[in-house]
Amino acid sequence: MATGLHDGDQGFRLANPERLFIGGEWKNPVEGQGLDVISPVDGKVGARVAAGGPRDVEAAVRAARNAFDNGPWPRMPIAERAAIVRRIGALLHERLAETAWATTLEMGAPLPMARAVAERAAALFDDYAAIGESYPVEDLRRRTNGEYAIVVSEPAGVVAAIVPWNGPSLLAALKVAPALVAGCTVILKPAPETPLDSYILAECIEAAGVPAGVFNLVTADRETSDHLIRHRDVDKISFTGSTAVGKHILRTAADRVARVSLELGGKSAAIVLDDADPELAVSRLAGEATMNTGQVCAALMRVIVPRAQVKMYSEMLAEAVSGMRVGNPFDEGTQIGPLAMERQLERVQGYIRKGREEGAKLVCGGARPADLNSGFYIQPTVFADVSQSMTIAREEIFGPVTSVIAHDGLDDAVRIANDSDYGLHGGVFTSDVDAAYAIARRMRTGNVGHNIRAIDWHMPFGGFKQSGLGREGGVEGFRNFLEVKTVYVSTPPSKFANS
Predict the structure, then answer these.
(1) Which CATH number covers residue 126?
(2) 51 shares its domain with 164
(3) Per residue in 26-70, pLDDT tens?
(4) Catalytic residue among 98, 106, 263, 396
(5) Is 147 part of the annotated catalytic residue set?
(6) What residues are paired with 50 via a beta bridge?
(7) CA 200 to each of CA 168, 396, 457: distance values in angstroms, whole numbers, following the listed order
């Protein structure tokens, strides 16, 4: 029994961190390798887990393929699968404190935030059980010639679920829960930096009685992950992460026309109109800049304001974020934890330098907090006088760096917002809901909020352009894991006698 602790008084427990979960069993990796989990809290090793290699991926895919082709899971009535998936959710609820603790240790989210994310992840298993129970998997339709067709939704097959490091428990649940309810079998591959919460999920799935091979966990480096996405027996790849990796997956999957859904990067814009409430807008946008230390793909980090109000908004934002407490995410009162990795800290620092070199005005932040000498911490940063041609306005920084950009009227604001390779989220800050809706319809992005960045996982979430393909959340997220078949019959089968 391995334990991950902070200050020796709380933590989480993993029964088999040195093993992989393949074919219903905890197995030693073939190569006997391990992954060190570096905690961003202090830059030290916080835990160690197994590291799979190509032969472990082969074993996991083989187990998932056999479970799909020959096992009971895809052929179970959906209500039976839903009941087991609900048990997974209940077991995750029992381990919320452990999941939160593991998440904070591995990626630095403040503990209250990590618990809220863990709660939402557990709830998704209930949500998708309910969606599956009510979904019309068999739809009898009358044809124009008087005969019939049955449009059937069937499981997509073997799924490679690949999740990133910035919200691992939630992003895993968004893939695993609907895939299992749909009748798919799954190989979960977490980011090598944040595998701990996936071990807790695997233990809950095992305890819930999911048949062998239906769910498999392989922790591995990125090179081994490539073997997974290239495997001919993987029918569907569901990936959340960077746009660059998403493009690589798309090219790789094209060789065998594998099904792919991608939730990728963002550079989301908040359009602020003259009639917006500045205090409301700043309070919401300050949260965007600092939530999860800016490591949120949908965060509104381009703040597009009337030219006459640039100084006011940049100074108000700077005052709001500068007053937030940066520190150890396990400590009560911490609002902003560290960035998840040392390379991410270096990346963010590089963008801050680039912003200054290209002529943006640094209003606040831009450096490591003076009292935090270890760990991967950065001050929340606000730039003013940012033009849309600057690097910090065009590329995803994935850190607490906000760019305030001037607009010269509504059409100009919409033009600036749409001048991006990305289209994941957006916001319109105005007192007029009709104006907000009209502007939202003009924005080339998958989600838009009125006076807020809203994400409701009962609703579809995803992006336009290079922000991805497909949607996660809600019914649309369930459809991600289904194939549609049309069966033509002259008369309805007996099971449709009362239809």
Answers:
(1) 3.40.605.10
(2) yes
(3) 999 998 779 999 999 999 999 999 999 999 999 999 999 999 999
(4) 263
(5) no
(6) 34
(7) 12, 31, 22
